[in-house]
Structures are given as structure tokens and as C-alpha cells.
Design a protein that fits this description.
This protein has 836 residues and is of the alpha/beta class. 50% of the residues lie in helices and 8% in strands.
Amino acid sequence: MSACATPRPSGSPSERPTDADSSRPSGNAGRSAPSAPASSSRPGGRLRRPLRGSGPDGARTADLSASVSVFLIALPLSLGIALATGAPLQAGLVAAAVGGIVAGRFGGAPLQVSGPAAGLTVVVAELIHHYGWRTTCAITVLAGLAQLGLSALRTARSALMVSPAIVHGMIAGIGVTIALAQLHIVLGGSPESSAVANVLALPGQLADPHPAALTVGAVTVAVVLLWPRLRGRAGELTRRVFPAALAAVALSTALAALAGLRLPRVDLPSWHSHALPSLPDGPVLGLLAAVLTVTLVAGVESLLSAMASDKLAVARTLPEHLSGVRIPRADLDRELRGQGLANMVSGALGGLPVTGVAVRTAANIQAGAVSRNSTILHGIWVLLASGLLVGLLELIPLAALAALVMVVGVQMVKIVHIRSVTRHREVLVYAATTAGVVLLGVLEGVGIGVVVAVALALHRLARTRIVCEIPEGGGPDGAGSVHRVRVRGQLTFLAVPRLSRVLGQVPEGSRVVVELDGSFTDHAAYETLRDWETSHTAHGGSVEITGRSAPCVQEPPASHGCAPWRPWRNHQCTRPHPGEGSGGFPVGSQLLGGLSNFQRTTAPLVREELARLAREGQRPSQLFIACADSRLVTSMITSSGPGDLFTVRNVGNLVPPPGAEASDDSVAAAIEYAVEVLRVESITVCGHSGCGAMQTLHDSGPGGGALSPGTPLGRWLTHGRPSVERLAARRGSPPRPGRQHHVPRTAVPGIARTPAAEPREADELEALCLANVVQQLDHLRAHPCVARRLSEGSLELHGMYFHVGEAQAYVLDEPGNGNGGGAPVFAPVHPGAAVA
């Protein structure tokens, strides 16, 4: 198999959804796996699905407490975001309630909190400025419909292919725009229509601030920044009961009321005059661009927040009484569908666009939420507050909300994001996106970021640095020294001329180490390196290729060497070079050569998977009992990998029955360990054609005359005598030793063949090999641990036969399993056959 093909790791049980609430399709749909007893504590056992509804009282209490915390954060922020967009303040409350109830109920991320988000502030403000509020509501409805269409096409993960540098730059640009606009309100003025206009008007605003608004804004900012620094148990309790946003708005409102400051305050008109959407009015292309902008920005922000919620939920530690609760991973397509429904409802009710909000989602998880009930309850609290707390909300100064949103905007420019893009050399993409959003708008800024990201990727792909280093102390022509050819960057056809020029400078007969730093090597570069390596080696030199791309370049070509599934015997590629013998192996050992080939080509590909198995322990689902014949490669014929099979191999794939004379405890111990400790789900006995053990039994005759009971092999093969007797009983007369009887396979007594099998005649040795598989299954059923699991219905036994010469596998279909009874049938396995 190609060394460049990354092995597909088996999904561990911990990676699968464990809650029926997740709508993602399962690969085991339609099948029910046997479940282990709840009290099982076997080492390396599978993670068992917790009982649904475990600890309902504790879960309900946790969700209720978390919903109140999120509500206290969402209420002031929703009003502030509505103020920043220029929309009616009630629109923020509508979006918060709909986001909690609708998106919380139908979304795919159970712990994500949705509502009006700062990330859409600039977009919505531009829409209101150009089209008016009622048309903006209609655009929100159409954007929700577009999100529903995208979810039906299952394109949610496609939105995540946008570079994180672009996303972070877009968020930073929006944050700068928000902060500049809200700063004018904090200073007692009114924001301009664009970020550039706000910057130009800022000096005049700073020269003539409004003292009352500035005081309220300063108090709000101070509380927001200092509230998380409260220390001690009392401080922790205070922060938990009163989140920073609520405390800041409450204190600044109390200050304004007690001091009698004359300031603009929240004005919530009667719900009877609440504006609802109207038919879109404006140029069609402009409206389509507006719908596309809201769809993409809201969708990407929601999906990123949903993925972040998975990480936060995994990282936290739940209390002991909630340890059995399992939260399913986010279903992104379902989440996009829930966001679409929420936007349609919010727009239809005159609310702001809805998106997943990372800040409120993090607060929800940190507050201990364990299900979507917390999100839904928070929406209900917002809905009740908008009807019952109108008088209280109208006491809030607009300067306090503006200061709160201004702090949120500044915090959207995250230092950790700047460090991340700098470390990955994408700061240019980040800066271009941020500047584009601030100067031109969100959609234009994202477009600029995409163009810069593509240009940077092409530049990196084309820019490759290739140097040759010759250490001092070599001969006059460099021979005798180790030449190091260092390749920095991706190795593509564009770099082939430089690569050929540098390789041409290496003296013949020298030792060369080629270091490939890039992660990609295309076909042209591969051929160039392989041709030069072949030529250099033919002239007495040696070449070693290292680095991330080494496995792909080191793969032998298909014309010779170890091409996939060529005969393994005497493989030249596994023979070490002269002088490489070590570790007790003789020079030229094929085994040592194979180990070296594994370390060079396979180990880098499987190291991560083996490290996972080392951490988690073995969890095989099958016990595979096969013959020790060197031609039977179990991993190849079963397409299995590390951790899949618990394999027992012996001469003749024999299973000594319990209590048998001259019994061998090693096989019984392996069976007991697999059945009782590893809790395997099935046991397969695999025989094969041309089995030497069966040949010996066949030649010895029914009495076993050719066997020497005094030798270990003779004593072991006595466990195969029942197979000979089984075949003889089926025929009605014992076979003559040493004589082969050619009969059609369908006529072999006790071993029937399906019509699909090739009607080729088989000799008595093959009949004995087939009978041996059936007999060893009977021996298996006699073991107490196997019999108990079979009676429970949690274990299955399977028979298998592999014809080595034909590379054809057959599986045993026991009588009564749909074949009409009678003798067991070995049915051939065809390519593409469904797995039961």
C-alpha cells in the first residue's frame, strides 16, 4: 500500500454522539450493538452510553441557574446592540427571545445561545441606513430562508473553509467600527454613518464632551473592566449572581437616577406600534447582496461559535451529581437550519438578525448548563422581561448601553487572535480584512481578505528555498563529506529547475541527505527526486530523504520494488544495506530490513493512532483464531488495523475443548481473556487451504498412526482428531490414509457449497480443512465463558475459510440461518458484499 496514504483511524466510541438528541446519521443505523452490563469495569472496555435522563433533578437545576445567568447578560447587551444599529430597541429583545426559544429548540448545538450579535451590527446599521427598518426585517426573513436552503444542501462545513485569519480580521474590523460609533454616544453626541466619518468627527467631539453622558459611560466602562477582578468567595458569588454587564448597567442607571442627571434614556414604545416587515423595496441586486451578506456573516459566526461550544463543553468539569450527563457534539447542518428558522421568525416579528453568540454561549457553559433547556429558558425570561419590566428598562441611560457595547467592540480585537495569525504568518490577511471592513464594509472587507489569502497561498506555493550545504573537512571535490540539500517550502513543478540545478552540484559517489521541510510534493518534483536518486545511487553514492514529505518521495515506484500487493517473498526493499546489521540480527537480515522500512515509511503515518491506542488501551470487537501458517496474513484478508482484532494463532487453528486430555491452557486463557475481560462481540475460527496440520492428520488416518504422541506436535494435533472423525462420519466410511479422493465440493458430506461457488473439484484435504472449522466452533461452544455469553445473546461465533491460491474468502452459514437447514454452507465473499 502506498506510503503516502494516511491510514483511516477507527472512530473511538468517545468521538461518537451519545445523546439521542443529535440528528447526525450514525454509521450503525439499523443495528443494535449488545450492551455490556452497567457494573462492568473491565480494563480497556468501551465507553458505555449513559442512561438517558440520569440525574434529571440536578440537570434541571443546573439549566435553570445557567438560564438566569445568561438572561442577565443578554438583556442589556440586546438593548445595546439594537441601539448601535439604529433599530428600535424592542428589536433587540425580540431577537434575543426568538434566538433563545427557536434556535435553542431546533438548533444543532445544544449549549449555544443565539440572539442579536455585535458581529452583525455594522451590517444591519448599513441596511437600515439604505433601506429602512421594515425592509431590513424583510431581508432578515430572506436570509433565514437562504440559511434553510444551505442546510438542506448540507453545506455547513463548507462555510468553515474560510481562513481563520479572515474571520478574525472581520470580527476585529466590526469591533473597531462599533467602538468608534459608540464612543460618540458616550461623549454625548451622535455617531456618523461610517467609521471614517466617525474618526474625522472625533476631535470635535472630544473638544466638547457632555459631562453627564461621559460620567455615566466612564462608570459603565470601569465596572465592566473591574467587575471580573473581584476576589474571594464573596467576590465569586457576587460575580455569579450579577454578571459584569448587568452590574455595569445597573450601577450607572442608579448613579444617573440618584444624581438627577438629564440624559437620553431607553425608550420602548408600545408593542402596538411595533414595526413589522414590509415587502423589500430597492434595487434587486442590492437586495440580493444584502441577503447574501446577512446569510454568510450570520452563518459563519454561528458555526464558529457552535464549534467553540464543543471545545468549551469538553474542557469543563461537571459536578459529581452530573457526571453521567453526556452532551452530543454540534450538528452543524442542523444548527444552520435552526438559525435559519430563528431569522425567519425574528424578521417576521420585527426583530434583529439572529446568530450564535460566542460570549453568551461561553457564559452558558461556564454557568453549568447541560442541555438546550437553558437556552430556551433564557429566551423565555427575555420575553417576560420585555413585557413586565418596561418601566425598569426605560430608566437605563443610552450612554450606559453605548459604553457597554463599546467595550464589547474593543474586546472583539483579541490579542490572542493577532498572536495566532502572526505565528502562522497570516498577519497580512488579518490586517487587510480588518482595514477593508473598517473602511469599506463587511462584505468588501471579507472579499479583500479572500483575495489576499489566495495571493499569499500562491506566493508560498511558488516560493521554495533550496540550498546545498557541504561541511568542512571533505575532499577536494566534496567526496567523502555528507552533503545536505535543504528544501524549505512546498516542492512543486515551479521549483523543479532550481532543484535540478542544486542536485547537479552534488559530487558523484557522495553521501547525501535531502531534507524536505514542506508538507507537499507534486508529481514533477517527485519524478525529479526519484530519477536523481536512482542515478546517484547507481554511481556509488547514497541518498537519505528526511522531513515531512519524505514518506511520499521514498515510496518505491510501481515498476519495481514493493508496489502494492506484490509478492512479499524476498522483497529487495526490505533488505538492509551492507553494514547495517545491528540489534542481534545478522548483516543483510530481511527482518531487520523490514523493521527499517517500517520506521521509514509506515511509522510516521501510524504513530498518532498507535499513541491513541497506547493511551486508551485495547478495545477489539473480535477474537480471531487462525492457523500459524506464514501465508495467512490476517490483517490483509480482514482489512484490519491496530486495535481491531484480538488474534490467536496456532498450528491448525485448533481450539482444545475444556477438560481434554493433554489440554493446552494458552488457547483457553486467550479465549477467557477475550470473552470475559475484553468483552469481544464475536469469535471467528479461520481455516485455510493447504493446511500442514490437516495434511498430517489426513495422512495419519483415523487411528492417528503417523502421529507420535511423545512429541509436542503429536500431542497438540490430537485435538484435531475429532475433525477427522467428523468428516469420516459424514462420509459413512473412514478415508484411506495418504489417498486423495477427488469429489465435487457440493458432494462433500457435512460441508455443502453454495451454487455461487465455483464448481471446481476439491480433494479430501480441503474437505478436512472445512470440517475442522466446524468442529472447532463446537469446541468453542463447550467453554463455559463462551456458552454463557452465547446464552445471553451478547456473543456470536463465525466460521471462515480462506483459499490461499485463489485469494478467496468463504464464510460459514450455519444450518437454520436462512439456508433451509442441512449441512453447513461456506459461501464465498464477493467484492462489495454487505456486512451483516
